[in-house]
């Protein structure tokens, strides 16, 4: 089962969240027909998005992550709330690269390249919070670590991974994000760095059956760990015909009239789940009536 766990050390100097996303990323892979490398790129971003969304305080708050890149992938978009549900897509799901010979790993940076990482938090205020940084590696985890350092000015360790099987299915996926709280000294930092350095790869641990709790205990070996709770997570789109109708209403009377006269129908596809919503002329005329009431 995919789920997220958060914890702190007893002294309150370290905060960490870990998530298993194997089934979730597999669903995203199947939904979007992703290549092995695109699966890794989107999967890593989905894991980070879940952890970041879990910090949102209110039910209506949301977070959207946009990675606009000059590599073959072109764009990664992930969005979610704090309910454990996440959705996302890439512009070019078949973008792929050969396995790196130097470390036998998926070459995510090859299809991402350079660009920007933008995080938009809609907290129900007049304007959303927007933070943006340049990509530093295209490997996703390092880019999020840089985002936290630059935008939030919080020393952060980010580890995200996706292990793809020979048949392109997802063998293991997940991640953790660790933040140091004010007052954390060099000795705490050194202990964490030593623990992370001697760990097996994250996906190897998950593939062997390690839970998010087990991973947190590995990262914080020697610390007194206090677990704060867990939450199931899933890849799930919240689109609906009603929401699509709302978006069609928003285009206005002039544009809707043009669609009716020139096309007599409309087909709207959701980027996040590939669901197609069809509207015939009668449907569009009903929507036009609603527009005229506004």
Describe this structure in words.
With 294 residues, this protein is α+β, with helices and mostly antiparallel strands. The protein is 36% helix and 29% strand. The strands form three sheets. It has a six-stranded mixed sheet with strand order 7-6-3-4-5-11, covered by helices on one side. It has a five-stranded antiparallel sheet with strand order 8-9-2-1-10, with helices on both faces. The relative contact order is 0.17. The model has no long low-confidence stretch (mean pLDDT 94).
Q: Determine the mean pLDDT.
A: 94
Shape: globular
Distance between the termini: 46 Å
According to DSSP, the number of beta strands is 13
- Side by side, the strands of the main sheet go 7-6-3-4-5-11
Oligomer: single chain
Helix and strand run = EEHHEEEHEEHEEHHHEEHHEEH
Radius of gyration: 21 Å
What low-confidence regions span 5 or more consecutive residues with pLDDT below 50? none
Biggest sheet descriptor: 6 strands, mixed
Tally of helical runs: 10
Helix content: 25-40%
């Amino acid at each position: 089962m995919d789920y997220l766990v958060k914890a702190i050390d007893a002294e309150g100097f370290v905060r960490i969240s870990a998530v298993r996303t194997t089934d979730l990323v597999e669903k995203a892979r199947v939904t979007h027909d992703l290549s092995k490398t695109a699966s890794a790129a989107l999967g890593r971003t989905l894991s980070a998005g879940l952890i970041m969304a879990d910090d949102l305080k209110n039910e209506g708050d949301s977070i959207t992550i946009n990675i606009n890149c000059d590599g073959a992938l072109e764009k990664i978009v992930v969005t979610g709330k704090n309910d454990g549900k996440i959705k996302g897509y890439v512009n070019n799901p078949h973008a792929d690269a050969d396995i790196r010979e130097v470390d036998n790993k998926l070459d995510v940076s090859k299809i991402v390249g350079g660009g920007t990482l933008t995080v938009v938090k809609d907290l129900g205020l007049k304007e959303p919070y927007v933070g943006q940084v340049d990509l530093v590696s295209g490997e996703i985890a390092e880019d999020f670590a840089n985002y936290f350092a630059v935008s939030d000015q919080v020393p952060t360790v980010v580890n995200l991974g996706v292990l793809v099987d020979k048949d392109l299915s997802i063998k293991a996926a997940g991640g953790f994000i660790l933040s140091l709280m004010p007052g954390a000294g060099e000795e705490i930092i050194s202990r964490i760095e030593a623990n992370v350095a001697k760990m097996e790869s994250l996906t190897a641990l998950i593939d062997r059956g390690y839970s998010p709790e087990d991973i947190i205990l590995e990262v914080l070996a020697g610390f007194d760990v206090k677990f704060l709770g867990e939450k199931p997570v899933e890849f799930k789109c919240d689109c609906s015909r009603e929401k699509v109708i709302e978006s069609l209403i928003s285009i206005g009377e002039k544009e809707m009239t043009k669609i009716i006269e020139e096309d007599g129908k409309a087909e709207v596809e959701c980027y996040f789940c590939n669901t197609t919503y069809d509207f015939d002329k009668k449907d569009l005329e009903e929507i036009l009536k609603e527009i005229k009431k506004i």
